[in-house]
Model the fold of this input.
Amino acid sequence: MCAALSVAGLGGAAPAAAAQAKATKAVDFAKAQLGKPYRYGGNGPSSYDCSGLVKRSYRSAGVSLSRTTQAQYRQGRSVARSHLRPGDLVFFYRGPSHVGMYVGGGKMVHAPSSGKRIKVERMAGHYNGSMVGARRVA
Done:
């Protein structure tokens, strides 16, 4: 009886662990792009826009996402800000018109805007008040 309970308990944990492994792989890919320039419509490998970076990062982990920020906002499931985990997508501004990937500690990796480079940045301050939602896609 104990063995059966133990196996059943593992069954629920395995999908969650696999999902977190995919999210971690996506975060690692995004961080490996640090310093590359923002380019509108950029899909990599030399430059990215915000949604292109997210799409390519998750593709490296075997997860298929839509190309645009607005379409990515409709994928996965909604996550409260207080429950963010590394790999969750964080969306900003009305539309939404910007996406980043939460990396933990109140920070995100993102491709900010023209003339800037991919970076890890605190969500507090400028981005904090403009967050419109978050999605878990893995």
